[in-house]
């Protein structure tokens, strides 16, 4: 397998190949994680208002990025996400400004803002002993039009998508004034079925994005074993002995911030790649799931804009 550096379609410069995700980063720890990442070469920090830690991320950025600091503002790609409860066009700008303030990036644009592609939601409650979710009827095209205004106003340099399937992405592109520059989607060996042969889901997705000049950001490539909705009997990629065998062969061990940057000093053989493809169990473990009537189902699958009912 050959490594490929991604070309940022907006800036005409190499984007960070590896980014630091801040989902599930605990209070009091995320600041140190971001500082460690920036110090060892990360140039992409992935955030979201819903992660509840953007202020702490901003504290780290203020120590390393800006005039007189180790890094120039234009050298670091910071991504934030418009959460599902803020998809109403009237809420978009305020939500963006709040994230910018928390990240310490006002005045001036954040490099990337993404529309989170799970169903637009109004909120949730647990008053009857289990969580009940309430959805709005906001269409993602209307949300996108409001996000385009963020570019017009100079609040963000670029806008993109997260968890949009191919059909939804084409829908956005067909009417967009500012095309999405990235689609951030889960990508891993457990959902890599061949549709149709000989291409896998991952390959289909990558080829599609390249054909419309949209970059792929793959999140949770190792399965996010500590995701909040994980079931005890869910498969765990990090503890899969087949993956451990490949890691031993190439002398790569359990991931850490610094070690994760060392992705360009090795290659996988064709046999390794075939073995990874064989891991497929056609399960999207990263999609939030709940128990209903004794069955484990995707929490939001009945929403008309739920993206994961499509294969890619």
UniProtKB/TrEMBL annotation:
Active site positions, chain numbering: 51 (proton donor)
Residues of the site described as Lowers pKa of active site Tyr: 81
Amino acids binding substrate: 139
One Pfam family of this chain: Aldo_ket_red
InterPro entries associated with the record: AKR, Aldo/ket_reductase_CS, NAD(P)_OxRdtase_dom_sf, NADP_OxRdtase_dom
Stretches assigned to the NADP-dependent oxidoreductase domain: 19-225
Molecular function per GO: oxidoreductase activity
Family indicated by similarity: Belongs to the aldo/keto reductase family.
UniProt name for this protein: NADP-dependent oxidoreductase domain-containing protein
